[in-house]
Each structure stands twice: as C-alpha cells, then as structure tokens.
Amino acid sequence: MALTIALFSIPPNSTPNPSCPLKKDRVRFLQLLKTKPRRGVRRELTLAATMFSDNVVVSDIIAGGLSGGIALSLLKLWEQTAKRGVFDQKLNRKLVHITLGLAFMLCWPMFSSGRQGAILAAIIPGINIIKMLLLGLGIWKDDATVKSMSRFGDHRELLKGPLYYASTITLAGAIYWRNSPIAIAAVCNMCAGDGVADIFGRRFGSQKLPYNRNKSFAGSIAMVSAGFLASIGYMFYFSWFGYIEESSKLVVGFLAVSVVAALVESLPISTELDDNFTVPLAVVLVATLVF
C-alpha cells in the first residue's frame, strides 16, 4: 500500500520548483514516500541514509560508540552480578553468553550500509578479542571479568570459549553482515541456542543422550528451539529495515541449521574443542549450503 502524506500532493512526475522553499532532496523524499511501497521506502532510505550524521564516517563512529557502550554496560552488569553472587557462576556466565552477542547484533542497523559499516561494527567485538588475549595470557588482571566469563575462575579459560565467542561475532559482522542469514544463524545459534541449552540441560537434563552422557535431550531440544526462534526474530528485525526479505524458505533453512547446530553441540568433540568453536563453524558450513 502506498503511503500518503497529508497537506502535500506531489504528482509522481512533477519537478521541483526552484522558487519553492522545499529543497530538491526533500521533494524527492516526499515523492519516494508517495509512490513507493513501504518496503521499498525502507530499503532505499536504508541504503542512502546514515543514522546520526550526513557524514558517513562520523555517523559510523557515533554508532560504534553507542553500540560499544551498550555492550560494555551489559558486561559491567554481569560482572557486578558475578561479584555479588546474585546468580550461580555457571548461570551468570551463560547470561553473559546469551545477551552480549544478541544485544550487539541489535545495534547493527545503526551503522551505514556497505563494507565500511561492517568493518567499523566488527571493531567493537574485535577489541574484545584483544581483551580476551590479554586476560587469558595473564598480561592484564581483571578478576571480575574472569569470574563472569570462566567456568572455574581460571584466566586461561578465556583463551578458548570467550575468545572463540568474540571471534565469531567479529567475523559474522565483518564477512557476512546484516544482509546475510548466515550471520544471523551463526550468532543466534551460538548465543541463544548454546546458552539456553546449558541452562535447560542443567535444570531438566536428567535423560542423557546415548552417545554423550554429558548432554541431555532437554538441552538439545532447548538449543534447537532457542537458536531457531532467535534466528526468526532477527530475520524479521533486519527485514523491517530492508536488509533481507523474510520468507518461508528462510524459516525452513533456519530450522535445519539449528538442528545441525544442536547435533554438533551434543557431540563429544564439541566438549573437547569447545562448542563456541564447533557450533559457529558447523552453522556457517551448513548455512552456506542452505541459504
């Protein structure tokens, strides 16, 4: 349905009047709203505009500051809950795992379209890669961060799961970006899927898998459900901005990818190598074939 604007009536083929106080770009903007379907309007405006400034670089820097601030605020929140013992350490670690990546992906529309926006967005989790290396190697001391992200409070643990986690989000943004269902599937299955699987598995996982007694049916089912639902949610979210087109094909693809991700996470090799490495790797490989 075409959008209409009260008090303005601009014929589709009209040309701007030089004496009119409206500038030419504003006239074209109104023509766009009048003649284009809503989805087309969103897509063209998204491709053409920046959110915070007419200068693309400045806009992306502001977006980076805001998204980095949001991620840092979340991290500080979970550091405080870990320090004060609000949650069990394992639950606190999984809450970090679930929320950080998903919250950061919500910020992707703030960046400009194209490669520049993708690279600048990837810098934020990229900085976290450096932080994990410094903490994991013992060069930088931060007990609160180590406690919130590790299983047993050992700083060397940050060189595995947390490092793979930050690397996945960085590469998802830099390589695939917000117009790719592969990025959505990788981040959602790693963050929501794997995180919820651990929580449900510990609470309801009395019935173990026959090929891995450390994993349960409840955890695997929860992983498929959470990874799939999160992927669908972000499909609609990015579709609203015009980055991708929602479709039943994508829905089926996301379900297939989430099933494979849960299967890989349940294998003994994922425990040995770390599921923050095996799950995103499997998701990218399968999603490349599916989408």
From TrEMBL:
Keywords: Chloroplast, Kinase, Membrane, Nucleotidyltransferase, Plastid, Transferase, Transit peptide, Transmembrane, Transmembrane helix. GO terms for cellular component: chloroplast membrane. It comes from the Eukaryota. One of its GO terms (molecular function) is kinase activity. The keyword Transport does not apply. Its main location: plastid. It is a multi-pass membrane protein. It is found in: Plastid, Chloroplast membrane. The chain crosses the membrane at residues 56-75, 95-111, 117-140, 161-177, 221-244, 250-267. Belongs to the polyprenol kinase family. This is Phosphatidate cytidylyltransferase family protein. It comes from Perilla frutescens var. hirtella (Perilla citriodora).
